[in-house]
Design goal:
heterodimer; A: about 300 residues; mainly alpha; Formate dehydrogenase/DMSO reductase fold; B: about 250 residues; alpha+beta; Alpha-Beta Plaits; 3-stranded mixed beta sheet; two-stranded antiparallel sheet; 11 strands; elongated; binds iron/sulfur cluster
């Protein structure tokens, strides 16, 4: 699949943002006055909003995006839009009350947290629902998206907040998220298009005669399908990118967290771990798209 | 509405005969011609006369090589357009309601004014039957020529999809699969019509007729070196034959 930069940014940024909203809503400790509360809420909400805005860039008609809220009965994309907007409104209200009165309404907070979890889940289901992309079509996909949202959200919240065990919990959550991703990678290696039961033979129905091979494409140039779904250029640096994702996304944040825990350095340094993790996640997300094989490739002689 | 109708009154669709298709692309060209002028917006191309030509088409003709075990390969031309699936995944994923399946005839359509061009429906279709229009930025797909089949102004014989009307080898047939006596139902029954990628669970309406088995020359038994004795001739010819034999 074609790795669209806007979608990569959207999923990583809004993942971290909704992860943060989830934690703040559940009462993640943040000491300080209205200024601090403003800053921390702006970071969470801002990331989520920025991600949502980025995602509209890949639409053919962004001006009609509001229409996407109508089909929640069947469409995960529609559900995601609704969940995101509701969550942001609830969280905005929660932050406003917190900022002005200093009290954190647990009812509002918990609902916003629930909404944030639902948003990340619906995002992941947009991909996990697709039978046409066997590597995505797994319950591990929501697990990975939720794990990364929680992990990166925790690091950001810890950088501003005052959790006593921020580093230890950070290490646990980052490790858990990457364990889920590791499982995902192991499964994806075995859930390639070739393993899914679909083949050029089933795609053409000609398997009952013999072995099928594409002789000629219908067109000499590229088209929407080949650019969007038979895209393979992005796989060129797969190994390097995976190393980079693991290094920046997992190893560096873990080392930074351990150093902070051991040295007693101020929690603000966790921001470095959060930044590094986000860059690693950009690489991870690139691969999520670039390495995914779509069934339509079978009609184009590829996997 | 992106909820699929439980059943549709008719199930209109195509039968494509892989035995008679000659791969001329006439159906695709005719489709492009009809739908660029008759649809809600043109079916656009970019750089149409340049080096990097590309554009939206609703029908594409692939060519495959099939190699049976122990026999020479054969060529199969393979036209592919929307199969108007009963369980169309492209419809249910659509966030706007632009994609829908008509309860009256089962045709899957896109309302271009509602489409936001998110492309999710094209991701959900296993067959590559949906293409984003590069100029209009909305999703395009086969309409089964809904504007021809119900037309009251076109001549009677033209009230079928443009591809079916055009095909010079009659490899394309249009009809109602809910009617067991329709031409398409009969063809599917007689020739063993098949579904593409049934494992995807889309339950396509369109069916493909596999190429008929080739009559292959049997591996020849040892060639007859000993020609059967020529029939005995009488009279003058018999004498001549015998005389020539004696000469060697
Ligand atoms: S062929 Fe593709 S576009 Fe057409 S109905 Fe089936 S899934 Fe949808
Ligand atoms: S591209 Fe258009 S028709 Fe397809 S899912 Fe998106 S809004 Fe619906």
């Amino acid at each position: 699949m074609h790795p669209a930069v806007s979608v990569i940014f959207f999923t990583v940024m809004s993942g971290a943002g909704f992860g943060m909203i989830f934690l703040l809503g559940l009462g993640f400790p943040v000491d300080g006055g209205a200024g601090k509360v403003f800053l921390v809420s702006l970071t969470g909400g801002g990331l989520a909003v920025a991600g949502l805005l980025a995602s509209t860039f890949h639409l053919g008609h962004p001006e009609r995006a509001w229409r996407a809220l109508s089909q929640w009965r069947t469409s995960w994309l529609s559900r995601e839009g609704i969940a995101a907007i509701m969550t942001l409104m609830l969280f905005g209200l929660y932050a406003l009350i917190w900022m002005t009165s200093g009290t954190r309404s647990s009812l509002l907070g918990w609902t916003a947290a629930l909404g944030a979890a639902a948003t990340v889940f619906t995002t992941s289901m947009i991909y996990a629902q697709l039978k046409t992309v066997p590597q995505w079509n797994s319950p591990l996909t929501p697990a990975v998206y939720s794990g990364f949202a929680l992990g990166s959200g925790w690091l950001l919240a810890s950088a501003f907040g005052n959790h006593g065990y921020a580093e230890v919990w950070g290490m646990v959550l980052v490790a858990l998220a990457w364990s889920a991703k590791w499982l995902w990678w192991v499964r994806a290696g075995r859930a390639r298009l070739a393993d899914s039961g679909s083949s050029p033979e089933t795609a053409t129905g000609l398997g009952l005669i013999g072995k099928v091979r594409l002789l000629e494409r219908p067109h000499t140039g590229e088209n929407y399908l080949t650019r969007e779904m038979v895209h393979r250029i992005g796989r060129k640096h797969a190994r390097t990118l995976r190393m980079l994702a693991l290094l920046l996304g997992a190893l560096v944040p873990l080392v930074i967290l351990a150093l902070i825990a051991l040295s007693g350095a101020p929690a603000l340094f966790i921001l470095a771990a959060a930044l590094s993790m986000s860059v690693g996640l950009l690489a991870e997300r690139w691969l999520f798209f670039a390495e995914a094989e779509h069934a339509v490739s079978l009609y184009y002689g590829h996997r | 509405m992106t909820r699929l109708p439980a059943t549709t009154e008719k199930r209109l669709g195509l039968v494509i005969d892989l035995d008679t298709c000659v791969g001329c692309h006439a159906c695709a060209v005719s489709c492009k011609e009809w739908n660029t002028s008759a649809g809600a917006s043109p079916l656009s191309d970019v750089d149409a006369y340049g080096a990097d030509v590309s554009g939206a088409w609703l029908n594409r003709i692939h060519t495959f090589e099939v190699t049976p075990e122990g026999a020479p390969a054969q060529i199969v031309h393979f036209p592919k357009s929307c199969l108007h699936c009963d369980d169309a995944p492209c419809v249910t994923v659509c966030p706007t309601g632009a994609s829908y399946k008509r309860p009256e005839d089962g045709i899957v359509l896109v309302d271009e004014d509602l489409c936001i061009g998110c492309g999710l429906c094209a991701w959900a279709c296993p067959y590559g039957a949906r293409e984003m229009d590069p100029v209009e930025n909305v999703m395009k797909k086969c309409t089964l020529c809904v504007d021809r089949i119900y037309s009251e102004t076109l001549a009677e014989e033209d009230r079928i999809p443009a591809c079916v009307r055009t095909c010079p080898s009659s490899a394309r047939h249009f009809g109602d699969f809910n009617d067991p006596d329709s031409n398409v139902s009969q063809l599917v029954a007689d020739r063993g019509g098949i579904d593409l990628m049934p494992e995807m669970g889309t339950r396509p309406v369109n069916k493909y007729l596999p190429p008929r088995p080739k009559t292959r020359s049997q591996p020849a038994p040892a060639p007859a070196l000993d020609p059967t004795p020529a029939p005995k001739a009488d009279g003058f010819l018999g004498w001549l034959d015998a005389a020539l034999d004696r000469l060697g």
